[in-house]
Amino acid sequence: MSAVALTLNVARSHINERRGRAVKPRGPYRKVEDAEFLAPIRAIVDARPTYGYRRVTALLNRRLRAEGQPTVNAKRVLRIMQHHGLTLERHTARRPGRTHDGIVVALRSNVRWCSDHLEIHARNREVVRILFVLDACDREIIAWSAVANAGISGEMVRDLMVAAVERRFGTTKVPHAVEWLSDNGSAYIAKDTANTARALGLMLLFTPVRSPESNGMSEAFVKTLKRDYASITVLPDAATILALLPDWIEDYCEVHPHSGLKFRSPREFIRLSA
């Protein structure tokens, strides 16, 4: 005991007193002010049940900043959500063994655009196919189109190219080279599509066969649209999907927090970068 007391530089009587004292287990850490954040957190979770605590924190802090109040730490939001059972179920699926080392993200806007398409199925077995192009830096959906119970045509891709160039530059030709990354679908590799891209000043790039990771930016949007919008909405028919799509994509661009943008939305990132 004397050696311990000497090492710790404390009195022997102090050590004896602590040895005889019953250790009281520490309960969950909480703050009195946590209660005021529960209601807004629950409102966000109710509206966006697929969001984890980091995106919930981003939306909560966006609201607090707009009201001129101090922001809240993500760990505090996690603690509140865990205490009230608002966190997501832990993902336990195995990840694929193959990794992708290619770089898709761009360091500034209007350098590389990524295009792809996806399908959303309605309950009556109708299907809506959505064609889109997004920026590999700011993640904004620059242009998109959708069709019910039909395939994606080369004409749709060419119209998308024209719409994207006009939206970003206000002209019919890009002022500098812009890469257009897509898969090897027939609509993208068609001769007329290549001619349109050349006329607009776009440089066509194609991903390797059976390598969706090579266009990971587009794949991420596909996953987000299906998980955070389509999967939590009743979709009786194709007409309902077509009616909801504009609001979904507007919400994705204006509100949805992106981890790669420090949990800002694409347009919030664009405004701050201007």
UniProtKB/TrEMBL annotation:
Record-level GO BP terms: DNA integration
Q: What is this protein called?
A: Transposase InsO family protein
Q: Which PANTHER family match?
A: BLR2054 PROTEIN (PTHR47515:SF1), LOW CALCIUM RESPONSE LOCUS PROTEIN T (PTHR47515)
Taxonomically, the superkingdom here is Bacteria
Question: Which GO molecular function entries does the Swiss-Prot or TrEMBL record give?
Answer: nucleic acid binding
- Tell me the ranges covered by the Integrase catalytic domain, including all copies: 92-274
Name of one Pfam family that matches: HTH_21
